[in-house]
Amino acid sequence: MEVAFIVCVLIGVFLGPADGHVVTDFGDSPDCIKFFYKEHVPDLGASLPEVVRLCQRYVNMYHFATLYNTYNRIAVYSAYIFEPSNGGGREDRWFIEPQLVDPSWASEMQDGYKMAQENPDIFLGDRQALNDDYKYTGFDRGHLNPNGHHPVPSRNATFTLTNVVPQNPTTNQNAWANHESKLTSLFKERCHQAFVLVGAIPSSNNWIVKNNVKRVNIPEYVWNAYCCVDQNGRPILSGAATALNTDQNVVVERTLDDMVDFLQQYSDAPVNELFSGQCRP
User: Fold this and answer.
1) Helix runs in the chain, H state only
2) Is residue 132 classed exposed, middle or buried when 0-12, 13-18 and 19+ CB atoms within 10 A define those classes?
3) pLDDT at 7
4) In sequence order, what are the residues at sequence separation of 6 or more whose Cβ sits closer than 8 angstroms to the Cβ of residue 51?
5) What is the DSSP letter of 247?
6) What single DSSP character describes residue 160?
7) Are strands 164-167 and 74-81 parallel, antiparallel or unpaired?
8) pLDDT at 89 (0 to 100)
9) Is there a contact between 54 and 162 (Cβ–Cβ < 8 Å)?
10) Predicted local distance difference test score (pLDDT) of residue 25
């Protein structure tokens, strides 16, 4: 009995507090709030009744954070810290979030196909997109948090369907991919650490429809914003960009203040700062 108690205590210490994958507030977990510069969580989307906060967990670690809209079944944004890729980690699997099916289920992302096989009588997609939603639509499963901005295992963790949106393949595979590569070089050369937000602006009424049901909102725009800091955590560089989700294949680079103004056009609530102090030096 004493041995069992000690083992349980040690397991609890190793795993940390059971705050779960779906959290009430990103600040509930120190390992989740760290993805936001100076722990400043944007106001963007926070007041929407259908959003949930996901601390993206894989192999018992948190890798990034996502504000997810369960009605549109796409993210408002994902927040992450850039790390150079070390190769590998490209998944054939697409993960889903068990706690969006049942709050009592596991707090770590799981292979959606495997979960469906294990739970044939339960529909897993009431509050999230499924891989079948994207099949034969002509849209890419466009990463918001790009897999190329992470080493393994964080790179694997980006292959969750709560981190992708229906993205025009021309733009996703060309202009937007080139923009992500440009940021990779910039972050490596200029930044000690780079905090990044990547999001989608939903369309008013453009959806992936399956069996006459609106399943996944097709966003009008994808966007990102970043804050680079030096070794002392002081801001040194910032920027943002938008891309219309069509085959126009153009990325428009912006300042953070321009980005706030742009996002405000699509928000009923004040957007305010994306980063603490708007990442001003």
Assistant:
1) 2-15, 30-33, 112-118, 131-134, 154-157, 169-173, 175-190, 256-264
2) middle
3) 37
4) 45, 67, 68, 69, 70, 76
5) T
6) B
7) unpaired
8) 86
9) yes
10) 97
Q: What is the DSSP string of 9-60?
A: HHHHHHH-----SEES-GGG-HHHHTTSGGG----TTTT-TTEEEEEEEETT
Backbone angles phi, psi at 26, to 5 degrees: -60, -30
Residues of the chain with confidence (pLDDT) below 70: 1-20
The pair of three-digit structure tokens given for residue 267, joined into one six-digit string = 């928000």
**DSSP code for 223:** E
Residue with tokens 């099949």: 135
Tokens of 195: 């905090």
What the block records as the tokens of 55 is: 């601390």
Give the C-alpha distances (Å, rounded to integers) separating 278 from 40, 217, 225, 241, 266: 10, 29, 10, 15, 20
